[in-house]
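Narrative summary of target 7.
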Amino acid sequence: MNQQISQQSEALTAVLNRAANIAVLINEANFDALAAGLALYLSLREAKKEGGVFLTASGANDWQSLAGAEFLRTDLGNEHLSIDLNYPLEKIEKVFSDDSQGKLRLVVRLKEGAEPIKKEQVTLDFQAPKPDLGFVFGNFEIPTIPVSWLANKESWAIFSHNYNGKAGFSFVDPMSYSEMVAHLLQNLGLPFNAQMAQNLYQGIRQATNSFANVNDYRTLETAALCFKIFQSREAKPATPQMSSGETIRQEPESIENKESGNIFGQPKVAFPTPKIFQGSTTPKSH
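Modeled conformation, tokenized:
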């Protein structure tokens, strides 16, 4: 997995820097996929990227405890605008459209004596915009996804345990999705904070049956790093303040491994400090 990520990280970073809107699709209804997908979405959000995180498979549970669960959507939307009217149908006489003034106007005519429609009874549901880059956990078999989204699979990255199809970027490995994302965030230099670390730790723990099914010691090391990051943030006292009210800058801790430089087997780096990452609104330097 490290080799797959290392080989594709430079090209993926270039695509990320250009992308303004990014979608994360979780197409497996298990805790590990949800933990990994939400951690990735939170990191992209921290990097000032627009987009959304969507659960496209049914049967998931316990995801409410994960950081970022409030952003999770279960509808991708269709390629149109829908208007929901929470009003008794029996009190509506007719619904029609009027374009006589050069613009589309939808009109709801009520029956005589019916009470007026209130603003809070009207809901607009906009289609999620087509992403410049997408991440999928599982596979591309998503009936609810707009056809236009998958017109170019080169603009998608897929995390899977057995995928053998075509995608712009493929990360295929039997290891947990949360472990994959932990390595990817480091290699891409994306933000990595306590919320993301806690999600990834919980995902690895669930995928390994509380570490009873571990095939590689590096899985334990990755989980230990994630645990250390979010635990240290919880136990850490409030950041000291200077007399002027300015926050004192504190350097991040360097996480190392005597054998390989750090626990991910990459050259020694300060972690979780992100590399320079250009968001969609950050002009590139020449």
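The CA atoms of residues 152 and 167 lie 9 Å apart.
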